[in-house]
Amino acid sequence: MKIVGLFGHPVSHSLSPMMHNLAFEKMALPYRYFAFDINPDQVKQAVDSIRVLGIRGVNVTIPYKETVIPFLDAVDRSATMIGAVNTIVNDGGKLTGYNTDGQGYVMSLEEELNVNVQDLDIVILGAGGAARGIIFSLLEKNARNIALYNRNKERAEKLVAEFDKEQASKIMVIHDLEQLHKYHLIINTTPSGMYPNVNETPIDIAYVSPSHLVSDIVYNPLMTKFLKQAQTKGATIHHGLGMFIYQGAIAFELWTGQKPPVQEMYKAVQTHLIKQ
Ligand code: NAP
């Protein structure tokens, strides 16, 4: 039996154990996924325990995505650029950090909306960690044009400056939402609308038109107020559950070398969220 799991604090609410264990069971793979609640002053010991106990790998969640990095043996290109690790793989004692969040988001978007990001002009709302990962992955997939809107404009400018010159030339900070009609896809990467602030929206719905694709990475609730309003306006919508499922699916493949049953994972997590 091989062990994988989650390091975070808190972790009791996490849907990752249910999702991964379901996939292991369906594929009859000899793995079990456990959630480990790690004390803030024991992050190094927790990472060392991966080697000591022969754990195959872990996901890393809030608040340790950055703090685990110094204790790893290697960090891949995306996690280095994003400055955060959400997946660790243990290859015979060598620990490598990856970040599958942005890639998971782009996979979910392209699969679920049947689009190619190369064909889209995109507006990102928010300039935090999630935005950084998503922008990196969009650029890796040759997105042609990205506009970044954040209520704190300086933070958006700082984020653009973190990318190399060629990448940064494709990102424009905007502060005038009147321009939104020029873009095909609007992605909310802010926590606005997330439980318990379910009555918040990141921007005024007046800026959204029926031709927009509107994507929200929040998945608690699945249908945020922003998505509900966008749907009422006739826009095509995409919620944040797929990002969660695909970031997990990529981690699963890094640990096992096999592709998990994404549709079954999606259905199980969605049913769980709807029941909540
Ligand atoms: P973060 O680093 O704290 O950044 C949050 C960003 O949102 C900042 O740019 C902040 O703007 C902006 N913001 C916060 N509250 C806002 C509000 N009420 N109205 C407008 N803008 C607001 O957070 P993060 O790590 O990027 O995570 C953001 C969200 O993504 C969270 O809700 C998280 O749950 C979700 N997420 C989902 C998945 C998934 O699998 N679906 C994965 C990762 C994250 P200022 O700079 O002005 O403060």
Task: Write a structural description.
This protein has helices spanning 16-26, 43-53, 77-82, 101-113, 129-140, 153-161, 165-168, 225-232, 241-256, 262-275, and strands spanning 2-8, 31-37, 57-60, 74-75, 87-91, 94-98, 121-125, 145-149, 171-173, 185-188, 213-216, 236-238. The protein has 276 residues and is α/β, with parallel strands linked by helices. Helix 4 packs across helix 5 (129-140). The chain is globular and about 55 Å long. Bound molecules: NADP nicotinamide-adenine-dinucleotide phosphate. Residues 240-270 form the SDH C-terminal domain. One of its GO terms (biological process) is chorismate biosynthetic process. The active site is at 65 (proton acceptor). NADP(+) binds at residues 126-130, 217, 240.
CATH class designation of the largest domain: Alpha Beta
Q: Regions with pLDDT < 50 over 5+ consecutive residues?
A: none
What share of the residues does DSSP label as strand, in percent?
15-25%
Strand pairing plus helix content: what structural class? Answer: alpha/beta
- From the N-terminal CA to the C-terminal CA, the straight-line distance is 32 Å
Pathway: Metabolic intermediate biosynthesis; chorismate biosynthesis; chorismate from D-erythrose 4-phosphate and phosphoenolpyruvate: step 4/7; Aromatic compound metabolism; 3,4-dihydroxybenzoate biosynthesis; 3-dehydroquinate from D-quinate (NAD(+) route)
Family: Belongs to the shikimate dehydrogenase family.
GO cellular component, one term: cytosol
Domain Shikimate dehydrogenase substrate binding N-terminal: 6-88
